Amino acid sequence: MKNSTVIIGKQEYFQGIGRIPFEGRESDHPFAFKWYDENRVVGDKTMKEHFRFAVAYWHTFCGTGNDPFGAATKDFPWLTANDPIERARDKMDAAFEFITKIGIPFYCFHDFDLVEEGENLGESTRRLEIITDYAREKQTESGVKLLWGTANLFSNPRYMNGAATNPDFAVVCYAAAQVKNALDATIKLGGENYVFWGGREGYMSLLNTDMKRELDHLARFLHMARDYARSQGFKGNFFIEPKPMEPSKHQYDFDAATCLNFLRQYDLMDDFKLNIEVNHATLAQHTFQHELQVAADAGVLGSMDANRGDYQNGWDTDQFPTNVPELTEAMLVFLEAGGLKGGGINFDAKTRRNSTDLADIFYAHIGGMDAFARALLAADAILKNSSYKAWREQRYASFDAGSGKDFENGKLSLTDLAKLAAGSGEPEKRSGRQELFENILNQYV
Ligand code: XUL
Ligand code: CO
């Protein structure tokens, strides 16, 4: 019964909603998938295997809707108990009820999403041990797995000047203690990967910042975390999650290319890959598909954080993904890369502040999963049935033989190229036919 069993704790939080079925695009049922059919085979895998969807613990069970202008709007019934451990258990009951009802195979957490941070390190460690015992029971009962764990190194005021890049060694040590505990928790729960998102690893002003020294510290810290986890038997991937800014003015992991330069410079390419997030890509003035392509071309497309921004306001709105044409472009990169290296698709997305019904959490995930499913089918059909790939290849046909091939193989010099140019006159104009490519996309969406 594993993976189709709905797990309800001591009370049912999402009453009246059962396991979400696949009903197809003709269905009007709001609690049914129209496109995501976990058993449907696309290429050589089922949809479930392609996506490896994950629920983000922080937005979905902890995010109560407060923003810089106003208080929480969401009265989550699992956050009412007085005792922090009881509250954490209730939240976990709600989480596993939701995850098993929606039929998502994985979840992801920060340490202090699971349970609130204690008054001191000892108390936080104790709380984490208790709640991860409970999580292990819930995972065994349900078959739900941990896609990745991480440590929250950005909310507590101690990290206002950074965590691993803090100019104060005492804070770096505290961050190390927290990462050690988060790694222990991830390993204990069979987590398949571990993520570093450096929200405050960056600066607010370069005037008071020794950037070189901070980057050296960050690399040293990542080496130590890797060594510790490996010594504890962790075989999974480490992911860095690029984001250019917010909360820092400038984040060191700015975008995929910057992360790659860092990983190469500090000899971390063997263990670290990238977790690409849609809204982080757009904050960096890139498209999602650009960031995926940069990662894929370097062999480090590890995982994805799914969401979307808002075209009108530049910041990180973390909305649920719904834009099928954009996702289809992303799925073209995903399929051509042969999928993700070890990761999955984590919904790092939140329902809007005024979406206050518990049912909204279901609508949001159903919508996101359907959007990805539709995009996957479209991308698969484009690659299999259209002239998309052939036409793209044709643009480069002059490199397939003769001098073009010799150039690619490093057999020609700059002088050789100049001689060829002198002998063949003005090159013919060749259209890039962008509109034709766009039409193919639309035809299959
Ligand atoms: C913040 C963000 C994080 C990471 C995990 O923008 O994306 O939630 O995914 O720390
Ligand atoms: Co994220």
Question: Keywords, please?
Answer:
single chain; 445 residues; alpha/beta; TIM Barrel; 2 domains; 8-stranded parallel β-barrel; 12 strands; 45% helix; binds D-xylulose; binds cobalt (II) ion
Offer a concise description of the structure.
The protein is α/β, with parallel strands linked by helices. The protein has 16 helices and twelve strands.
Could you describe the 3D structure shown?
This protein is α/β, with parallel strands linked by helices. The chain folds into 2 domains: 41-385, TIM Barrel (Alpha-Beta Barrel), CATH 3.20.20; 388-444, no CATH class. It is 45% helix and 10% strand. The chain has 16 helices and 12 strands. Strands 3-4-5-6-8-10-11-12 form an 8-stranded parallel barrel, surrounded by 4 helices. A two-stranded antiparallel sheet has the order 1-2. α11 (324-336) links the parallel β11 (301-305) and β12. α5 packs parallel to α6 and α6 (169-188) packs parallel to α7 (211-231). It starts with 40 loop residues before the first strand and ends with a helix. 42% of the residues are buried. The structure holds D-xylulose and cobalt (II) ion.
